[in-house]
Automatic annotation (TrEMBL):
This is 3-phosphoshikimate 1-carboxyvinyltransferase. It is an enzyme of class 2 (transferase). Keywords: Amino-acid biosynthesis, Aromatic amino acid biosynthesis, Transferase. Belongs to the EPSP synthase family. The keyword Amino-acid biosynthesis applies. Residues 63-399 form the Enolpyruvate transferase domain. Pathway: Metabolic intermediate biosynthesis; chorismate biosynthesis; chorismate from D-erythrose 4-phosphate and phosphoenolpyruvate: step 6/7. InterPro entries: Enolpyruvate_Tfrase_dom (IPR001986), Enolpyruvate_Tfrase_sf (IPR036968), EPSP_synthase (IPR006264), RNA3'P_cycl/enolpyr_Trfase_a/b (IPR013792). It comes from the Bacteria. Its EC number is 2.5.1.19. It catalyses: 3-phosphoshikimate + phosphoenolpyruvate = 5-O-(1-carboxyvinyl)-3-phosphoshikimate + phosphate.
């Protein structure tokens, strides 16, 4: 699907949008529910990634295809490895078969798991024959993806002796690890995270518990970007959010103050208000705790004609696409000067955007969604715009609700 995007007639938007549950919280909660069926979940994500996780958990044999969903790939690897009597081939999209999983496979193997590579060593697809995992101590590198750590933590309470993890090297995407531990806490599992050690106690049964998933903060980022690019006086309300979030991307409320966007929390909603113009012509952020909002911030800066230096982006090359390379190419189509290295991106201030651009999306939902708000500054085309369904199937409809003109080509 190719979409032609144009700005709303009124750049002082006053609208409310309801966003569904966080895909990160959803996929964790679903796995915990598979281990402890007396868990109930509210406000599930309606994303493709949530759907493939649910489908995957329902299977015991045969092929399980999780498409592009990194969390489903990593969490289900740990799940199936620990389930005696289940045997699956866990696979995904072409890109998923290029996203590394060796660190997790080796950690699980050292706990006693039977996992074999079906094609290339270190990458999906994996043939997993579930077993009772008897060992309870493992060390693993923590600087590649926090999802490997969360995967182990999620199955940890179901292991005979729980789990003790030693994290080696600099720990990346830490809030996602804390989210996993917080959800374990909500179902009554005891955990401790001190320095580079994490301990999870075993738990056979839990009390009946309802996990209420907060809406997705990464999805909210696109509305922060829109608010930042709109006129002072713009107000966009998003539900359902809370001030004490488990999601690291809630740092948006702080970061977007620099762009003149104030956030107020009330009645399970946030109100984003454009209260002033952007305060600087160059901004710097280390996003190692919030890698999924890097694309959003880079595009906001382009739209506002300011420069930025974003660091802590070492995980971006192994996500849905190489996001650093993709950003350089696509920002460049609008005339921007962008330098990248293995962990950072620098954008020079750019006052006029080039016209007649078609943005490519590389099977990456966040490439499509991060560029969407830029229609406030220039008309352009988005190729393969349906990719948004990975995390936010209603994204383009919600932009229409805000008054954007969006037509199929
Ligand atoms: O655990 C999670 O839910 C996630 C962790 C992050 O991945 P990395 O730890 O690989 O950076 C993030 O980018 C991803 O979208 C979701
Ligand atoms: C990186 C992402 O997802 P995953 O790693 O779960 O595929 C994302 O949603 O930005």
């Amino acid at each position: 699907m190719r979409l032609q995007l144009s700005a709303p007639d009124d750049r002082k938007i006053q609208k409310a949008i309801a966003i569904t549950g966080s895909k990160s919280e959803t996929n964790r909660s679903l796995l915990l529910q598979a281990l402890f069926p007396n868990i109930k979940i509210e406000n599930l994500s309606n994303s493709d990634d949530g759907a493939v996780m649910q489908k995957g958990l329902a299977k015991s044999t045969g092929e399980v295809d999780i498409h592009h969903a990194g969390t489903a790939m990593r969490f289900l690897t740990a799940y199936f490895a620990s389930q005696e009597g289940k045997q699956v081939v866990l696979t995904g999209s072409q890109r998923m078969q290029e996203r590394p999983i060796k660190v997790l496979v080796e950690a699980l193997q050292s706990l006693g798991a039977d996992i074999q590579y079906e094609k290339s060593a270190g990458y999906p697809p994996l043939k997993i024959t579930g077993r009772k995992l008897k060992r309870s101590q493992v060390s693993l590198p923590a600087n590649i993806s926090s999802q490997y750590i969360s995967a182990l933590l999620l199955i940890a309470p179901s292991l005979e002796n729980g789990l003790e993890l030693e994290l080696i090297g600099k720990i990346t995407s830490v809030p996602y690890i804390k989210m996993t531990l917080a959800l374990l806490g909500q179902i009554g599992v005891q955990t401790a995270f001190e320095g580079n050690m994490i301990k999870v106690c075993p738990k056979e049964n839990i009390a009946d518990t309802t996990l209420v998933v907060e809406s997705d903060w990464s999805s909210a980022s696109y509305f922060y970007s829109i608010t930042a690019m709109c006129e002072v006086g713009t107000e966009i309300q998003l539900s359902s959010y809370k001030q004490s979030s488990l999601q690291g991307d809630s740092v948006l409320a702080e970061i977007y103050k620099d762009f003149g966007v104030e956030t107020t929390f009330s009645n399970n909603a946030i109100l984003l208000k454009k209260t002033s113009d952007v305060k600087s012509n160059h901004l710097e952020y280390n996003l190692s705790n919030a890698p999924d909002i890097a694309q959003t911030i880079a595009v906001t800066c382009l739209g506002l004609g300011i420069g930025c230096h974003l660091t802590g982006l070492h995980t971006l090359p192994i996500k849905e696409t190489d996001r650093l390379a993709a950003l350089q190419t696509e920002l460049g189509k609008f005339g921007a000067t962008v330098d990248i290295d293995s962990e950072s991106l620098t954008l020079q201030p750019q006052s006029n955007l080039k016209g007649e651009v078609a943005v490519d999306t590389y099977n990456d939902h966040r490439m499509a969604m991060a560029f969407g708000p830029l229609a406030l500054k220039a008309d352009f085309v988005v190729n393969d715009a349906g990719v948004v369904s990975k995390s936010y199937p209603h994204f383009w409809n919600d932009l229409k609700t805000l008054g954007f003109s969006i037509s199929k080509m």
